[in-house]
Amino acid sequence: MVDNAHILPLNADVALEELAANAVAVGLPMNTPFRDTTLREVMLIKGPIGWAEFSPFPEYGAEESARWLSATIEAGWHGWPEPVRQSVPVNATVPAVAPEDVETVLARFGPVTAVKVKVAEDDVATDIARVQRVRELLPDADIRIDGNTKYSHDEAFEVITALPFLAYAEQPVPGIEPLAKLRAALRDAGSSVLIAADEAVRKETDPLAVAQAQAADLIVVKVQPLGGVRRALSIVQHAGLDAVVSSALDSSVGIAAGVALAAALPSLDHACGLATAALFRTEPAQPALPVNGVLTPGPAPVPDAQLIEQLKLPDERQRWWQTRLAKAHSVLTQNA
Ligand SMILES: O=C(O)CCC(=O)C1=CC=C[C@@H](O)[C@@H]1C(=O)O
Ligand SMILES: [Mg+2]
């Protein structure tokens, strides 16, 4: 039974001046292009209880970014709920690289028991070959794919049925109805590959619609896009589906919030997509790299002042980030 009357409200109780005065925008160089970028820009904000992150992707508007800012306020001003587990298993994330490069990418994550492979950026045959290469290297791993909405129904069906060992396919097709249709077609064909919803949760105005439509077996939850750890927890609770926590390609400051969410979920049956620090070449805080495939909950790491100086974006980008902070804040406080 889906009940969306009880999703927690967004956090909107910090003045713009306070946020702006304590914020710096930095650029994190990446090892491998991911989401078409080689420099992930994030804003780090020092709150009274710790460092927080505000890092909506550059193309996101103020409405969507307001939810990210609510998570920033929670992290720096309110704090997260107590963990119910001290160990969060994580997956390696393999961007849409050539199959021959998979081994090098996997090596950055150390030993892991789960791997998420990005697909739908090349042709279907290359996608299948990339996933098969992961399977060859880690035959016992739990392997999932993420299509980021970019397959057609037929492409998704072809890839998923060619890879019957997959644990799940994350948002292979766009929207809720196409996801429901694909899920039904796979079941009819006898496939046991599960369907996970990501964009259909984090970009829909109603994050519970996917559960209502029975379009997925599990939901991918990300702290910033859902407005904070506590709000994401309330969404999972009301969706009534299994959840897996993923990063939004946050710096390790933001990853601490993701680990806090994963550590606070009543049940956690899947390794989480929180090892993305391995995709950065450098970042201002101690990178949240998995040890034997797990991350441990704790406060956000404190960025190093010298590294902040080194990675700080030029003035024009600082102004751009300050403007979007102001716009997101305006939407957030108007809606509160
Ligand atoms: O889940 C993971 O393994 C890593 C995070 C990840 O894949 C993503 C992070 C940020 C934006 C997205 O393009 C992407 C995702 O779709 O899940
Ligand atoms: Mg995804």
UniProtKB/TrEMBL annotation:
<comment type="pathway">
    <text>Quinol/quinone metabolism; 1,4-dihydroxy-2-naphthoate biosynthesis; 1,4-dihydroxy-2-naphthoate from chorismate: step 4/7.</text>
</comment>
<comment type="function">
    <text>Converts 2-succinyl-6-hydroxy-2,4-cyclohexadiene-1-carboxylate (SHCHC) to 2-succinylbenzoate (OSB).</text>
</comment>
<comment type="similarity">
    <text>Belongs to the mandelate racemase/muconate lactonizing enzyme family. MenC type 1 subfamily.</text>
</comment>
<comment type="pathway">
    <text>Quinol/quinone metabolism; menaquinone biosynthesis.</text>
</comment>
<dbReference type="Pfam" id="PF18374">
    <property type="entry name" value="Enolase_like_N"/>
</dbReference>
<feature type="active site" description="Proton donor">
    <location>
        <position position="118"/>
    </location>
</feature>
<feature type="binding site">
    <location>
        <position position="198"/>
    </location>
    <ligand>
        <name>Mg(2+)</name>
    </ligand>
</feature>
<dbReference type="GO" id="GO:0043748">
    <property type="term" value="F:O-succinylbenzoate synthase activity"/>
</dbReference>
<keyword id="KW-0456">Lyase</keyword>
<dbReference type="InterPro" id="IPR013342">
    <property type="entry name" value="Mandelate_racemase_C"/>
</dbReference>
<feature type="binding site">
    <location>
        <position position="170"/>
    </location>
    <ligand>
        <name>Mg(2+)</name>
    </ligand>
</feature>
<dbReference type="Pfam" id="PF13378">
    <property type="entry name" value="MR_MLE_C"/>
</dbReference>
<dbReference type="InterPro" id="IPR036849">
    <property type="entry name" value="Enolase-like_C_sf"/>
</dbReference>
<feature type="active site" description="Proton acceptor">
    <location>
        <position position="222"/>
    </location>
</feature>
<keyword id="KW-0479">Metal-binding</keyword>
<keyword id="KW-0460">Magnesium</keyword>
<keyword id="KW-0474">Menaquinone biosynthesis</keyword>
<protein>
    <recommendedName>
        <fullName>o-succinylbenzoate synthase</fullName>
        <ecNumber>4.2.1.113</ecNumber>
    </recommendedName>
</protein>
<feature type="binding site">
    <location>
        <position position="146"/>
    </location>
    <ligand>
        <name>Mg(2+)</name>
    </ligand>
</feature>
<dbReference type="InterPro" id="IPR029065">
    <property type="entry name" value="Enolase_C-like"/>
</dbReference>
<feature type="domain" description="Mandelate racemase/muconate lactonizing enzyme C-terminal">
    <location>
        <begin position="99"/>
        <end position="189"/>
    </location>
</feature>
<dbReference type="InterPro" id="IPR029017">
    <property type="entry name" value="Enolase-like_N"/>
</dbReference>
<dbReference type="InterPro" id="IPR010196">
    <property type="entry name" value="OSB_synthase_MenC1"/>
</dbReference>
